Every structure is written in structure tokens, then in C-alpha cells.
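call fold(seq) -> C-alpha cells
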Amino acid sequence: MTELIWDGKYKDGKKTAPVRISLPFQTIETINESAADRQKRLGSLFNQKQNPGEWRNRLIWGDKKYVLPSLLAEFAGKINLIYIDPPFNVGSDFSFTATIPDHPESEEDETTTFIKQPSIIEQKAYRDTWGRGLDSYLQWFYETVVVLRELLTEDGSIYIHLDWHIGHYAKIVMDEVFGYNNFLNNIVWCYKTRQFSKKYWNRKHDDILFYSKSDKWTFNWESVMSPLSESTIKKYKLVDEQGRKYRLSGRGITGSPIKSAKDVDAKWEITNPELVVRDFLRDGYPPEDWWLIDILNQVANERVEYATQKPETMLERIIKASSNEGDLVLDCFCGSGTTAAVAEKLNRRWITCDLGRFAIHTTRKRLLGITDVKPFVVQNLGKYERQQWVQAEFENPADRLEQERAYKKFICELYHAKALEGYTWLHGAKAGRMIHVGSVEAPVTVEDVKASILEFWKLIGKEKSAETNGIDFLGWDFAFEVNETAAQFAKSNKVDVKFKKIPREVLEKKAVDQGDIKFYELASLKVKTKIAKQQLTVTLENFIIPPDDVPEEVRGSITHWSQWIDYWSIDWNYKDDTFHNEWQSYRTKQNPKIDLTAYNHYEEKGKYTLLVKVIDILGNDTTKAITIEIA
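ret:
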């Protein structure tokens, strides 16, 4: 077989293998799980092997370079259908349209939109894909489909959605990985757009490559037949002994095929069966390899303002044809969540993932809009990905303390701070403020803040840089109560504290080398609670978000704090396991308003921890914990 060669495919005479780092998933949110199921699960992390009868669909935030190998341990040979819509246009990027909703107290519609540029980590992903042009794309594509093939069941199949830029190259790669004989179809999706060219034939189609893993695969052709026209149906006027409609056609009869019952009588049919064929009425025409499906226009109900969103009609056709109810469907380029949404509606299990935070948020909202959506979890690789990064970047297994010091020095330098030696809790200084660097393995806690403040006061007089009274806490994650409890402790000790997130971009060397890593302050959320008998009322009263990530010309459009909020949800009884989304309010295209008050009735008296999660218009989340007592 002819082989396609590109720069990077071989190293020292061997094919370059995909990354094989397998990391445990962290469940960060459970959605729509009943109280009874939650109680059964309490005290142990969800694991399909431990609870084989309790499947949870999975929405995973992370780089597929790590996500796909991490799925292999549990799902190798177990996924029935894969659909992917990878970036296939050298001009594609990760930008998205963010919407600033209307002022809630204004009578005029002041809704505005702006283009949110991709994050550094998304830019890095784009550079990895297209950095060396076609060569780097093909290597990236090859490594991806090698792992996808391992995930498929023996009778599974995969659909690859591409366009004219790259499709012919991708087919040769697919032939190599899946086998030339397992290529089943090149499906052509035809559509109409307003784009017009006088220089070449106008490009009005995409290609979808359809491959099986073996010589056996699922194809439910009856479920995807095209409907017959009324005029065709009317031609089937005869009825057989079983009540089935049919028409007659014949061989060797003048004027055949027979057009009606008048063309031949029953006697002729009986005495000459070899010349007459009963053509029975079918449910539709057999499916063809070209599909005329409209793209989503601006007013389509299913549109979620995601640039690469595909029509549900298309995914419905693919999922119906190539899977059965209860089968497992994977899409590792989640985007707007179309595959997951259609799989959910068709009673398939699903796993979907994406690198973009906004894609995960868009999909979560879309799934919540489905009536009786089954429970699903939101996962990431969290601290495990960070641990892997520390071990690779600061390799020194013989001395973990030295590795930890190197890591904290590195973060201080990224923050443009001077690293300090000889202290336990304070790791650097910048512009008269001290720096604490949080661990990769755990959130910054109230205890971390208190210990840092105590060490800070011991430091006064010893370090010139400690002459002011401020500490910046840099962390990957922060305990829920930090913004309140820790801030109050700091204030009572006359120390000004700021909490800033270490961005995930730090994990990417190219982003670090580019020198544009930004540490953003945590958003601040004010919540009011009121208890009457055993009913709790929760009201959002303020939300302050550092506007650094929003274009300056856009900030003036925000005239009320609630305009920053796109979504918020509540766990009414948080038990330090994972966030359980038990109530939510969010904006949609059909209903852009958001409720700022929520209610819950508690059946039993006692103390409860209330966890409130707010997601802003850029997809960033802020969480606040509140302790209440139902008396």
C-alpha cells in the first residue's frame, strides 16, 4: 500500500508514537443526580468498575493528548461509535462570540456581543496543530486516530468530518491506521451559504469519512431511509394476504414494469410468477452517500452561537445508523456539544471532551436544556496533570523537596517576583508584597493563609521587601471559604491579601516561552440567605469580576453586576465530596434573562453547607460556600 510520509512521522527509523500518559480523572461536578444515588455514592469517588450498573455520561475538560490515553485503561475496545469534527481549516481558531446580556432594569434591549480571543493554551493547541503547516497537522491527526482506533469495539465505526483543505490527506492516514478495506464511505454533506466566488467553483460541501474497525460493523439502514413522496406511495394500491401494500412489476411483459393492477390480472400473476414481481411498499428510500442538510442559520432554535456548530439532523443520522440504544458514543472535539446532545436524546451513552473552557460551559447548558436529561459528570485531569508536569519539568525524584523548591521558584519568576529561600510559607517578593505559591496537589486553604500571615510577621524587619503589609497568594485552586474566612483573618491581622489563580497555560512550555502568562484575581461573590421555617431563600447580591480578560471598549457595556453572570447553580447540601448541581439558572438564546433568587425546602433540621457556583460570560467559574442552620 502507498504510504504518506511527512516531517515528524518517523524518528530513528521508527514511527513516532502518540503520548501514552494515563492519568486519573477528577470529577468536579455531578449534574442531575438524585439524592438517593448521591447518598449511595457518598464517601467514594465515582468509578465505573466499582459501580458497573451506575453509568454516568462524561463531559471532560482537557487536552485530548492526555484525555484519550487516560480513557484507554477503562474504555479500550468498548466504544461503539466515534464522531469527530477536528479543526480542518488552516484559518480556524478558538475564538468565540461572548454575549453581554441586557441590563435587567432597563426597558431597552442593550445586548451586545464581542469576539473573545483564544486563551494562550488554545493558541498553543492551534500552533501544535498547524505550526509546521501540513506536516504538523498530519502528525497530530495520525497520533489522534491511532488512539481512537484502540478505543473502538471490534464492530465499531468512526466518522471523520473534514473539508476540502485536508480531507484527501486524512483519508490516506485513515487507510494506514484503519485499513484500506475498512473504508466504507466518503459522505458528502451539501449545504447552501451566502459565500460567493467568481474565481472557482463555490465550495458548498464537506466530506465525512466513514470507517469500520473490522469486517463487521453496525449499520441500521432502515432507521435512516429517506421518506417516500406522496405520489410514490399512491402507486402501491394492491394489498396481499398479510395486509401489505404492493404494486406489480414484471419481466418479459410488453410495457413492463407493470404500472397498475389493470396491467395484469390475478390469473396472470398466479400462472406466470416468474414474470411478475410484487414490489412491496417500503418505509423510504435506501440511504445515499450525499446529504442535503441545511446549515444552522441565525434564527435556528438549536443555535448556541458557536462558530463550528453542526446541525443535530446530521448527528442524528450518524448515531441512528451506526449505533444502538445503550451503545457508547465518543466525540473528543466537543465544540458546542451537538454529539452529546443528540446521543442523549437517542438514549445512547456518551463521552465528550474539549480543551476550551467555553466549549465545556456551552455543552453543559445545552444538555441541561434537554427534558429529563440523565445524570452526567464534569471531569478534568486536574492535579494529576500538574503532578505529571512537575515531574517532567523539574525532574529530581531523589529529592522531592528540591523539586518543590524549583517549582515554586519557577512560579515566582513567571509572576516577575524575586524568589526567597529559607521560609516555609513565603516563597517570593514583588513590589513590596510577599508571595505564597500554592501546591500543585491541593487548593490554597485558610490554614495556608493563616500560616503565611504568621510567618510574614516574623519576617518583618528581616527583609526589606517585607516593609509593606501585603501578601499575594498564587494557587491553582482555592478552598471555597478562602475569599471570606481567610480575608477576614488577614484584615484582623492588618495584612492586605490578594488571591490570584495560576493559569493552566503555565503547563505549556511554548506559552511560557512566549512570556505572556497572566495571573488573574479571583472574582468576588456576595450572597444573601434567608430562612423561614425550613425554607431557604438564596439571592445573589453582587458579583465582582476582574475585567482584565475583557477588551477595554467592552467593559463600558457592563452597567449592572448581573450582566457578568451567564449561569449559576447550587448544591443545597455540600458534603465535601464533589459539587452536585441540584438547581441552576442560565441564559439561553430563547430566554436571555436569569433568576437571581433560588429556593429550597429542607425536610430535616440541622446544619448544612450551601455551595453556590457562578459562571461568567467568558466561562470562568467562581464558587462560594455558606454554612446555614435549619432549626
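The two ends are 76 Å apart (CA to CA).
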